[in-house]
Amino acid sequence: MAKKTIQDVPVSGKTVLMRVDFNVPLDDQRRVTDDRRVRLALPSIRSVIERGGRLILMSHLGRPKDAPDPKYSLKPAADKLAELLGKPVHFAHDVIGPDAQSKAAALQAGEVLVLENLRFYPGEKKGDAAFAQALADMADIYCNDAFGTCHRKDASMVAVPQAMGSKPKVVGFLVEKEIQYLSDAIAAPSRPFVAILGGAKVSDKINVIKNLLTICDQVLIGGAMAYTFSLAQGGQVGNSLVEKDKLDLAKELIAVGGDKLVLPVDDHCGDRLAADCNKQVTPAGQIPDGYLGLDIGPQTAELYARRIRDAKTIVWNGPMGVFEMPPFDAGTKAVAQAVADSSATSIIGGGDSAAAVEQLGFAEQVSHVSTGGGASLEMLEGKKFAAVELLDEK
Fold first, then answer.
1. Catalytic residue at 172?
2. Domain hosting residue 272, numbered range
């Protein structure tokens, strides 16, 4: 799936409309607390402005209710971008209204305009054609550099490139890299190919587990979803988080997975969700009443680390336990350390696992940290994205 990139099109004297993912966390003073998503967009942004293009950036932030809400304004992200670029960045207080229109028309070569939050307009989530056309009319070139929303059908992702007609429609460097890593991992992995799946719910990962069992050599299971598997095998899970309506499904995955599906051999439990709770390590499936599983146990951590060390390709999505709370971060730490120490191609699939790898300081030691939890999961399911399919082929 080789798509044209922003570098493949001449931008001098042209206006580029770029969809970025500036959905950044803000504190109570509305300051950006983690600028990673803005930093990751810089190569694509610089490619346009350093070659004499005019750049309009659009993004969503948070979940406003289809109307302007100062709490979700993109102005702090625009200010952070100006700081990182070391030059002024214009900001429009609407998206397709008079402020956006006049500022877009006044843009000079090498200048950047950030539009207000796309989700202030109901047309964004609805994929509205008129809303999309008004955005498309502002520009000569469309660029998608927002992998985190590539699995969505929002107007800015699908209807806008459709409304561009025969004008160039390309990917940014971030989306190019995501597609390259995630699709290559699935299409032609170096083996052994090991997937590590954690998180709370089997239901969130059913299709991923099913797909990965057909292409991986091992699928290692951690996080709270392991207790649903444990209960399905007739184990005791105490007060652990389980999906009782998914037990038949868990049994089916165990049967289909055979030796490929690797489940924990021990659990680290507590009598409540607190760092100072009473703790014990129990064999898997033997969590006593009054206790709940909060992490994989030390034997499982060692078993998983050994499997990871032997791998040539690793995909990891979801923490092994309550990684925000010591000592129940130990399993996630052990897995992160093993992935970081490995010489394999290692892909961290967004969301909490990306946060864990960043927090533990291993981000530089893995091959790729995805910016999109939901999007990377859907790509690992083998799904195609309309937002990418309709862009220009190389």
1. no
2. 181-380
